Amino acid sequence: MAERRLPDAGGGASLEVTPDGLALRTPTGLVVRAAAERLAGPLLQGRDLLAKATFARAGGDPVRVVDATAGLGADGFHLAALGHHVTLLEREPIFHALLADALERALAGALGSLAEEAARRVTLHLVDARAYLAAAERAQVVYLDPMFPERGKAALPGKAMALFRERLQRQDAGEVEEAELLLAARRHAARRVVVKRPLRAPPLAGVAPSGALKGNTVRFDLYAALAPGAAGG
Ligand SMILES: C[S@@+](CC[C@H](N)C(=O)[O-])C[C@H]1O[C@@H](n2cnc3c(N)ncnc32)[C@H](O)[C@@H]1O
């Protein structure tokens, strides 16, 4: 299939239909797709801290996880590949389009049978997570991976994150929004909220977690679930 350019996606970026699925090309030449390969099986080496933090181990009882900041789906697709049920929330239409394309291709069998099975466990919504979490039926775990801080040694997220910064600067609504997201997540989760942070970054919205699982460059902060309507802090 020949590459086909779609109308400008904003900020000089364009969406392209390529043989490997929908792709976003930025003015600086980055080409980014959803992390569809993660649907085909766990690729991570070593300790799987994300799975441990979310109670979503391979071979364990299926867990319902809301990945409330889905991005390119690397983390959410990974949890689905491990056998869990994942609801992806993404408010940015471009990233939602990349995720939807990856899921469509997987469901059509283009990425193999494991990816097809995993994609059946994934639900995707174009929505602000704060609204979804306040209204939807509770899931066991809510996972948050909002924007990485601009500065600091731990901000090494690679080209996808460079793209996120490029496109999402305008969305940097700061701590109030982060606090709202964390509170909505804790009221929604029946068991736990997990927040991915660069290893040495302060906790999300300055709210101290009750524990953390630490890797080499990131950590997963753990927050207890709250009763619906409860105050945070
Ligand atoms: C750092 S990326 C997530 C990366 C993701 N964990 C992955 O593995 O690809 C953060 C994403 O969260 C989205 N986001 C931030 N706040 C949101 C909100 N309130 N509702 C929905 N999506 C949000 C952004 O649009 C962005 O795509």
**Cofactors, ions and other ligands in the entry:** S-adenosylmethionine
Strand order of the largest sheet: 7-6-5-8-9-11-10
Q: Classify the helix fraction into a percent range.
A: 25-40%
Structural class: alpha/beta
Calculate the terminal CA-CA distance, rounded to whole Å. 53 Å
* Arithmetic mean of pLDDT: 86
Largest sheet: 7 strands, mixed
Poorly predicted ranges: 151-157
Given this structure, which CATH class is correct? Alpha Beta
How would you spell out the order of helices and strands? EEEEHEHEHHEHEHHEEE
Cα radius of gyration in angstroms: 17 Å
Specify the overall morphology. globular
Query: Approximately what portion of the residues adopt beta-strand conformation?
Result: 15-25%
CATH topology: Rossmann fold
Provide the CATH architecture: 3-Layer(aba) Sandwich
Instruction: Count all strands and give the number.
Output: 11
The total domain count is 1
CATH homology superfamily:
Vaccinia Virus protein VP39
How do the helices and strands line up, and which of them pair or pack?
Blueprint: E1 4-10, E2 13-18, E3 21-25, E4 31-32, H1 49-53, E5 64-67, H2 74-81, E6 85-90, H3 93-107, H4 113-120, E7 122-126, H5 129-135, E8 141-144, H6 158-168, H7 175-188, E9 192-198, E10 211-214, E11 218-224
Parallel strand pairs: 5-6, 5-8, 6-7, 8-9
Antiparallel strand pairs: 1-2, 2-3, 3-4, 9-11, 10-11
Bound molecules: S-adenosylmethionine.
The site of S-adenosylmethionine has 21 residues, from helix 2, strand 6, helix 5 and helix 6.
